[in-house]
Amino acid sequence: MDGAQTNELTQWPLVDRESIEKITQWLTAQPHLPQIQEHEIAQFLHANYGNEEATQRTIENYYTLRTNYRDCFTDRDVFNDAMQTALRIMMFTILPGETKEGYKMVYTRLLTSDASHFNHPQILKFMTMCLDLWVKLEGNAKGHIMLMDMHGMHVGHMTKMNMAAVKKHMFYVQDALPIRLKQLHFINVVPFMNWLMSLVRPLLHKEVEEMINMHVGLGKLHEDIPIECLPNEVGGTAGSVQELHDSFKEKLYANSEWFKATESQNLVDETKRPPKPKKFMFGLFG
After folding, report:
1. Which is nearest to 152 in space by CA: 106, 119, 108?
2. Collapsing DSSP states into helix, strand and coil, what is residue 105?
3. Is there a contact between 128 and 72 (Cβ–Cβ < 8 Å)?
4. Which residue among 45, 80, 169, 226 is least crowded, i.e. fewest CB within 10 A of its CB?
């Protein structure tokens, strides 16, 4: 292993060296999967708390989804018209600091309530890119929290929901993304939240549904999340939504070549996949 790889492996100090070697050996018996580097294996092991069987499933799901869901994982140019439109409609940012448990946080919010240009699959593609960058920058955190501010959302956005894209996006977040998801917070909950939940609840794992916290007011949110980590608009002191948006946008731009490079790297070769049970991937691609 060269010096750069050794350096990257130090990001995962709690990952057991023997587990890395076992997953490496398992990968050699999976001809359809890419032979990824040790620091990448360490990332999956960290996300799964060292559980080797769960790590294998996550690796399988991660690379299969990125290979087969090409609408979301190609043409990831942050400067193209579709992504620039998404950046004007939706903001995503990594919040500064961490919780007392050492968890890292991200925050999302609409930048405009106008739904006329709201392209749901493109917004989910943008969100996936942001999540991928979060994993790249903070995947080694003790835990991860997502805060979704529903300010500005109305029924007009819901009429444009694409449930096929939602299904794939949620599978990616719950079963493939190598993070330690701990909490989901919905802020400024809208009156039609029950209707929205009725649509997505069938797609939620029970343990993920139990992570959800709904906030109509801000009192409980301020108990759960440090005020110094939150945007000004929700009673925090971390800066305005626009300032946080601009800051993360610079991170996206700085990683534009990384997004392009990963489109064609580490893909699954379906012609070499060993036979799987008919229910493999829960019918996601069937």
Report:
1. 108
2. strand
3. yes
4. 80
Summarised one tens digit per residue, pLDDT across range 158-182 is 899 999 999 999 999 999 999 999 9
Task: Choose among 80, 172, 79, 186: nearest CA to 124.
Answer: 172
The per-residue pLDDT for range 68-116, each reduced to its tens digit, is 999 999 999 999 999 999 999 999 999 999 999 999 999 999 999 999 9
- What is the amino acid identity at position 232? N
CA–CA distance, 38 with 15 (Å, rounded to integer): 11
Lookup: tokens for 62:
């991660």
Contacts 24+ apart (CB under 8 A), 227-236: 228/96, 228/97, 229/95, 229/96, 229/97, 229/98, 229/99, 229/105, 230/95, 230/107, 231/95, 231/107, 231/109, 233/109, 233/149, 233/151, 234/149, 234/187, 234/188
Q: Select from 175, 142, 151 the least CA-distant residue to 69.
A: 175
Q: Within the chain, what is the greatest distance between any pair of CA atoms?
A: 55
pTM: 0.91
- Residues recorded for the chain: 286
Its sign, for the CA torsion 128, 133, 136, 138, is negative
Q: Is-contact 75 84, C-beta < 8 A?
A: no
Residue bearing tokens 């801000």:
218
**Domains defined along the chain, listed by start:** 16-68 (no CATH), 81-258 (3.40.525.10)
CA-to-CA distance for 250 and 121, rounded, in angstroms?
23
- Start-to-end Cα distance in the chain: 39
Record the tokens describing residue 274, joined without a space: 């060993």
Distance CA 202, CA 171 (A): 12
Q: Which amino acid is at 145?
A: I
Residue 74 sits at the vertex; the CA angle it makes with 69 and 80, to the nearest 5 degrees, is 135
